[in-house]
Design a protein that fits this description.
This is START domain-containing protein. InterPro entries: HD-Zip_IV, START-like_dom_sf, START_lipid-bd_dom. By secondary structure, the protein is mainly β. The chain has a single domain, classed as Alpha-D-Glucose-1,6-Bisphosphate, Chain A, domain 4 (2-Layer Sandwich). The chain is about 0% helix and about 50% strand. It contains no helices and 6 strands. Strands 1-2-3-4-5-6 form a 6-stranded antiparallel beta sheet, with no helix packed on it. Strand 3 and strand 4 form a beta hairpin. The radius of gyration is 15 Å and the shape is globular. The mean pLDDT is about 80.
Length: about 100
């Protein structure tokens, strides 16, 4: 179960487009708005960089690192810990996702 719900995501800048017209090696600056499943807590905004990497076996790694510690914003935002996921292609055509949180 997710502790919060992503209500809005926006790519602010593409620092690297990756290779061979796919996301391998792509580096994006993004912002996301998160909403807890309660009306008592206001939505929270996070500013982060996302990196995509494809390994030789076809496994993808997607990593998010918060930029709020590096580039403080005048508007309050939430600070996220580094996180990501490992996406593994399965023989039946589906994908298996493993979450990573640090």
């Amino acid at each position: 179960m997710f502790s919060d719900i992503v209500s809005r995501v926006l790519t602010l800048e593409v620092l690297s487009t990756g290779v061979a017209r796919n996301y391998n090696g792509a580096l994006l600056v993004m912002t996301a708005e998160f909403q807890l499943p309660t009306p008592l807590v206001p939505t929270r905004e996070s500013y982060y960089v996302r990196y995509y990497k494809q390994h030789a076996d076809g496994t993808w790694v997607v990593v998010d690192v918060s930029l709020d510690n590096i580039c403080p914003s005048p508007t309050p935002r939430c600070r996220r810990r580094p996180s990501g996921c490992l996406i593994q292609e399965m023989p039946n055509g589906y994908s298996k996702v493993h979450g990573l949180k640090m």
